Amino acid sequence: MDYQYPISLDWSTEEIVDVIKFFECIEKAYEKGIERNELLTVYRRFKEIVPSKAEEKTICNEFEEVSGYSSYRIIKKAKDSNEHTIRMS
């Protein structure tokens, strides 16, 4: 990984850590697979920090541009699935 996560200077240190954890879980879903409940839990925390749909889209698009991983697609798959492990291929 040789890219930076999109963060806001308005966030507290704890919020930055939680947003980075969310993006790390997105990476994990693509690379190895992740437990569905863990992914949805970190997503709920992410939404507490970034409640606006527009801001979420902007941040997630920035992450996708640098990483190639779509947060939207993996979260949609987790919400629509009953599988224990979520993996994007």
Describe the structure in your own words.
- The structure is a single chain.
- This protein has 89 residues and is mostly helical.
- 65% of the residues lie in helices and 4% in strands.
- The chain has helices at residues 13-31, 36-49, 53-67, 71-80; strands at residues 34-35, 85-86.
- A two-stranded antiparallel ribbon has the order 1-2.
- 20% of the residues are buried.
- The mean pLDDT is 96.
Please sum up the structure shown.
The protein is mainly alpha-helical. The chain contains four helices and two strands, in the order H-E-H-H-H-E. The model has no long low-confidence stretch (mean pLDDT 96).
Task: Annotate the secondary structure layout.
Elements: H1 13-31, E1 34-35, H2 36-49, H3 53-67, H4 71-80, E2 85-86
Antiparallel strand pairs: 1-2
